[in-house]
Write a structure and sequence with these properties.
The chain is α/β, with parallel strands linked by helices. It is built from eight helices and eight strands, in the order βαβαβαβαβαβααβαβ. It has one domain: NAD(P)-binding Rossmann-like Domain (Rossmann fold, 3-Layer(aba) Sandwich), CATH 3.40.50.720. Strands 3-2-1-4-5-6-7-8 form an eight-stranded mixed β-sheet, sandwiched between helices. α5 links the parallel β5 and β6. It is globular and about 50 Å long.
């Protein structure tokens, strides 16, 4: 039986840990021929994940590249190296990001945090996805096919007090998803956003929040929760799905994958446009 990503070539930014690592291994399990993972630092982490990918899918499937998504030239080098080694680029997952911990160790008002941290979060979480998408898009357009997935977060936490700019940076990425989906309509390239659906056990959890959660025994979602929609949306089966938002925790394994994907869809975080709206499914309620 053919696997959903058989023969596909993917780039996953921030692939050394957390959601990125989970999706990289999930893509290997789903039959990807090449999984390129990047990170700005910690080369040893992405090399270890590349080795895990090879154990799953065979030698030379995983490929680790140290690259900072805030550096356009580095992103273009990632795209160039991927096409040189694998011949094409089918999937881009914009997962690399910086969390609120760059501002402070606890939730603080926007004027109380580290201003350098604010700039770093904005540069990585907004400019980073643009830089990577800009770097791969010509290849995808020439292929007449491609899948771009932007990793965001839960709707209500985008505007939670004492959590900017991390939350608003993900709201911006949701808006970029809608803009890009419309720019790329009928090109064969789709753009969607995915989120785990709650707090995941990653380094993004603020130290003070983590300490409080340990006292209350608040559970975290496993990083793997995002894998099912990330795989399905990257496959040929999702060729007609663009400009939509999907939640990993809403995936229902009792349903066929296409129905589970639809059931995990949320309407866009923004109101429908008053004019010039060319995306339809984006604002429709999910079918369950």
């Amino acid at each position: 039986m053919k696997k959903p990503l058989e023969g596909k070539i993917a780039i996953i930014t921030g692939g050394g840990r957390g959601l990125g690592r989970a999706m990289a291994l999930g893509y290997a399990e789903a039959g990807a021929k090449g999984v390129v993972i990047t990170a700005a630092r910690n080369l040893d982490q992405i090399e270890a994940v590349a080795a895990e990918i090879d154990e799953i899918a065979g030698r030379n499937t995983g490929f680790a590249i140290q690259a900072d998504v805030t550096d356009m030239s580095a992103c273009q080098e990632v795209a160039k190296t991927t096409t040189e080694n694998f011949g094409r680029i089918d999937i881009l997952v914009n997962n690399a990001g910086l969390g609120q911990g760059m501002m402070a160790d606890d939730r603080v008002k926007f004027y109380e945090g580290n201003t350098a941290g604010w700039a770093a979060i904005i540069d990585t979480n907004i400019n980073g996805p643009f830089n990577m998408t800009y770097s791969v898009i010509q290849t995808m357009l020439q292929q007449n096919s491609g899948r771009i997935l932007n990793v965001t977060k839960s709707r209500s936490s985008m505007y939670r007090p004492n959590e900017s700019p991390y939350g608003p940076s993900k709201a911006a990425l949701e808006a970029m998803t809608l803009c890009w989906a419309q720019d790329l309509l009928k090109s064969g390239v789709t753009v969607n956003s995915i989120a785990p659906g709650g707090a995941v056990e990653t380094e993004f959890v603020l130290p003070a929040v983590r300490a409080k959660a340990s006292q209350t025994r608040k559970p975290y979602l496993p990083a793997e929760i995002i894998v099912p929609p990330a795989v399905w949306l990257a496959s040929d089966n999702a060729s007609e799905i663009t400009g939509c938002r999907f939640i990993g925790s809403k995936w229902d394994f009792s349903l066929p994958p296409d129905e589970a994907c639809e059931a995990s869809r949320e309407p866009a975080v923004f109101l429908p446009p008053e004019r010039d709206g060319i995306l339809k499914k984006t604002w429709e309620p999910a079918k369950r």
